[in-house]
Amino acid sequence: MKSFHVSVHIVPRKGLLDPQGKAVADALHTLGFHAVADVHVGRHLIIETAAADAAAAEAAVRDMCGRLLANPVTEDFEIAGVSAA
Amino acid sequence: MKSFHVSVHIVPRKGLLDPQGKAVADALHTLGFHAVADVHVGRHLIIETAAADAAAAEAAVRDMCGRLLANPVTEDFEIAGVSAA
């Protein structure tokens, strides 16, 4: 068993309301950043886990996303990277 | 002016407490994922902005992070990628 760092992006599903992103975009406009068209706000998780190899670490994290980390109704997730720790 | 998507990771500074990550790690252990050693939870932002080129888009987003998006006392940010929209 080796140690891996798996990073995950969890973002609101496209087409659904993203009120946090809208609030950030409005605040940026107020600060003078008028070139900003849109903002999406999601979560960035880094999970340190032991696994036999990188593929097993990624599979375990996909399972974690399905069971706890992501809301399957409103969010999409993607594995952004797997690196040996 | 072209449109760019700039993605940013904002994470708790290393060495500072990350109570949200601790809570997620505990919940994963409860679900049976005992191989998980640690979890860090940050934010993943995607900013759609108009700029002359990719370097200008990245510079604008760095300025946004410093002035609004990241807490300079407790968080670090990194530009994860810039792509033409």
What key phrases describe this protein's structure?
homodimer; 85 residues; alpha+beta; Mth169, Chain: A; three-stranded antiparallel β-sheet; 3 strands; 44% strand; elongated
Structural summary, described in words:
2 copies of one chain form a homodimer. Chain A has helices at 19-30, 54-69, and strands at residues 2-12, 36-51, 75-84. With 85 residues, chain A is of the alpha+beta class. Chain A has one domain (2-84): Phosphoribosylformylglycinamidine synthase subunit PurS (Mth169, Chain: A). Chain A has a 3-stranded antiparallel sheet. Chain A is elongated, with a radius of gyration of 16 Å. The A-B interface holds A 1, 3, 9-11, 21, 24, 27-28, 31, 33, 35-51, 60, 63-64, 67-69, 80 and B 1, 3, 9-11, 21, 24, 27-28, 31, 33, 35-51, 60, 63-64, 67-69, 80. Strand 2 (36-51) of chain A pairs antiparallel with strand 2 (36-51) of chain B.
Brief account:
2 copies of one chain form a homodimer. With 85 residues, chain A is of the alpha+beta class.
**Element-by-element helix/strand order of chain A:** EHEHE
Average pLDDT over all residues of chain A? 95
Task: Give the low-confidence spans of chain A.
Answer: none
Number of strands of chain A: 3
The CATH class label of chain A is Alpha Beta
Count of helical stretches of chain A: 2
Main β sheet profile of chain A: 3 strands, antiparallel
Main β-sheet, spatial strand arrangement of chain A: 2-1-3
